[in-house]
TrEMBL record:
<feature type="compositionally biased region" description="Basic and acidic residues">
    <location>
        <begin position="841"/>
        <end position="853"/>
    </location>
</feature>
<dbReference type="InterPro" id="IPR017500">
    <property type="entry name" value="Phage_infect_YhgE_N"/>
</dbReference>
<keyword id="KW-1133">Transmembrane helix</keyword>
<feature type="transmembrane region" description="Helical">
    <location>
        <begin position="745"/>
        <end position="766"/>
    </location>
</feature>
<feature type="region of interest" description="Disordered">
    <location>
        <begin position="823"/>
        <end position="853"/>
    </location>
</feature>
<feature type="transmembrane region" description="Helical">
    <location>
        <begin position="658"/>
        <end position="679"/>
    </location>
</feature>
<feature type="transmembrane region" description="Helical">
    <location>
        <begin position="573"/>
        <end position="597"/>
    </location>
</feature>
<feature type="transmembrane region" description="Helical">
    <location>
        <begin position="772"/>
        <end position="792"/>
    </location>
</feature>
<keyword id="KW-0812">Transmembrane</keyword>
<dbReference type="InterPro" id="IPR013525">
    <property type="entry name" value="ABC2_TM"/>
</dbReference>
<dbReference type="InterPro" id="IPR051328">
    <property type="entry name" value="T7SS_ABC-Transporter"/>
</dbReference>
<dbReference type="GO" id="GO:0016020">
    <property type="term" value="C:membrane"/>
</dbReference>
<protein>
    <submittedName>
        <fullName>YhgE/Pip domain-containing protein</fullName>
    </submittedName>
</protein>
<feature type="transmembrane region" description="Helical">
    <location>
        <begin position="604"/>
        <end position="623"/>
    </location>
</feature>
<dbReference type="InterPro" id="IPR017501">
    <property type="entry name" value="Phage_infect_YhgE_C"/>
</dbReference>
<feature type="transmembrane region" description="Helical">
    <location>
        <begin position="545"/>
        <end position="567"/>
    </location>
</feature>
<feature type="domain" description="ABC-2 type transporter transmembrane">
    <location>
        <begin position="497"/>
        <end position="677"/>
    </location>
</feature>
Amino acid sequence: MIVIGLMITPALYAWLNIAAFWDPYSNTGEIGVAVVNEDEGGDSELTGPIDVGAQVVSQLKENDQLGWQFMDAEEADDALRKGDVYGSITVPSTFTDDILSMFEGTYSPPTLVYQVNEKTSAISPKITDQGATTLDATISSVVKERIAEAVTTELSNSGGDLEDRLANAQSGAANAFDETADTMASASASLTRIQERLDQAQPTVESTQRALRSVDGALDEANTALTQVQSIMTGVQAQIDNFSEAATTAYLESTGALAEGTSAARGAISAVTGELERAGTGIDSALRDASAFTRQSDRAIAQLERLLGGAALGNGVAGPLQDALDDLRSQNDANSDLINSLTGLQSDASGALDAVSEASDALAAATDDSRDSAGGLQSATSDALPQLQAAISRVNATAGNFAGALKSTQTMLGEANSLLDGVSDQLEGTGEVISNFAEEVDGIESGLETAKADILALNAASEGGLLDTVTSLDSDGVSRFVASPATVESNAVYPVATYGSGMAALFTNLSLWIAAFMLMVIFRVEVDKKGVRRLTVGQAYRGRLALLAVLGVGQGLVVSIGNLLLGVQTENVFAFVATTVFAGLSYLSIMYALVAALGHVGRIIAVMLAFLQIPGASGIYPIEMTPAFFQAIYPLLPFTYGIDALREVIGGFYGDHYWRAMGTLLFMALAALLIGSLLRRWMSNVNVQVNKELESTGLIVSERVEVVGTSYRLTDVIYALRDREAFREEMDHRWKPLRENYDRLLRVSVIVGVAGVVVLGIIARFTSSQKALVFGIVCLWMLLVVAFILMLEYAKQSFARAHELSELPESELQSAVVGAGVGGTSVIQDDPDDPDDSEDRADSADETKGGQA
């Protein structure tokens, strides 16, 4: 019974939804829309009395597209607010007058008041909007129809009067046409003469322009000459200014230099004179002292000679003394000669001092003469240069004025030339206009003759009955044509008969996803290996998937055959059933890979994928109408290709679209099969720890995960066998930070996860255009937080296993070495705590003993 329930229950989702949405738009006549007509009608010369509101009500009573309910304004407002009707349309009292105002020159746009209760349903406002649009089109049709009818009737009634008027105007029209033709011929001749005079005036204008261009060239040359004169005068004036400035500068510099030189020379002369005077005074004093010393030396030498002559000394003593006195005498004589020379030098110095004094006086006189001469030159320059500059300035001003006058003259010549160009253009334009006008006159003359013939022919046609076409116009037919001049012919490509058939692709795929999920919930994913020895992970994975695939085929058959019995459209019954079964097996492969590898976390991911695929696989709305987030994940979703494949089967095949969709589903199924079998082995220990934590809550039941090999790492087991104490110390050191911070990290991860969801929720609240993207980020954020918590828990359990390993007896450590080595062969190991595994081991041991016996 459980298997039968698994076959039928998922299919009920598809069947009920397909039946409920089989043809909802055929029941739009049950959607209530209140119509309030307050129009008071109107009148115009063109349409006569008209009440557009009443005509609209009359037509709506015959329209069953919506449930039109006619009531007054108060009743309509009450019914709309209570939800008895989904919308209301009010025709204002001045509606007809506003329409007719366009014929009176005071157009006031007519307005319908449309209200909708959007609370009652998400789809009904869209349907009532279409009803309001239909009503607007109906009103436009009514107005056009009445106007066309009035115009056609007026034209038909005036057909008889037109025939009488044509007969009365025939004779007068012929004479009038003849007179007008003569007038046109005279006008044509006058235009020809005017054209000839214009042609004669054109050469005169051209010769005048050539003369003006010659004068303009002469003025250019004169202007160039004046410019050169001004340039020369400017240069001369600049030279005079430079000369005046240089002369003044030279005068000032020479005067200053002369004053400075004179002052320096006189100062030097004064210094020299003072030094000479001081030197003379010193020399006089020195000469006096030297002369006195020389005289004293003479007297002393004479006295010594007298003493030496009077003394009775021997030759040995007297001789040296006499020699010394002779030397003193010679030195004293030399000093006397030097004093005489110094006396002569003093006389020469006195003469030089007098000469320097005379030179100083002469220099002062020369300086005064030079200053007087320079002052005279400066005065002459100051008087002559301003007069010369004033004359040059007058010449320059005169040249400038003359140049300005020439420029003004050139400007006037340019304006005259432009004016003549304009005159020439005007003459040409006038000639063209007159020529064209002459042609028009000729055409009018010809047209008059044609019109005369047409009028006579029209009268004859009236007599022959051709005006009966106007007088017999069908006003009803014309008015209907004007109201609706064109019709739209709709042709469906790959037609789908009912809305239910169109939605069957989505509901069937969703039913298949639910079916696969129910198998993951009700059936064990892990294989019961009781009685099976050395079962590998690959064998267990493929075996359980094969069992579930058999049930999946049954679910696909039930869903597809039930859809066909409901009347779902299909191009090929076999293809419809086969596609449904294949899509169900593909979804089963994907979901089984998730659950086998990740356990309960995989089931959560499967549910989240269902949430994402409903809006993101283009099941209801075109993917282009969905937010950018869903457009981005659209190619990655299995539903995308399952829905496309079923749509091909339902609506019709095109090219290789069907096979591409089926091929993509096959690729996803095979990829899930391969990745799931690998992750099943690698993630087994993680699933074991997660299941233990879930079971510890006492609220969730988890199946036992079959582990490949022992739960201990081979390197850890060998390390513990070699040095248990060192292994224990290293494990304690390695896992101490995690052991001390585990609770804190767990709390922080939960708080950060919740805070991230809250922040993203606030962002989504104030970001109207990116809600889908924020939703996707929330899903990814939650998966990351769950992954982090799983990693944290796995690390904790790894430490627990390492600690447990360090406490095992020697014999169990050796057994663990064997288990870890066997684990490398992907064989599912026995659980020591499982009674069934203990029984299998005992049976195996008995068999081994029996064989040995």
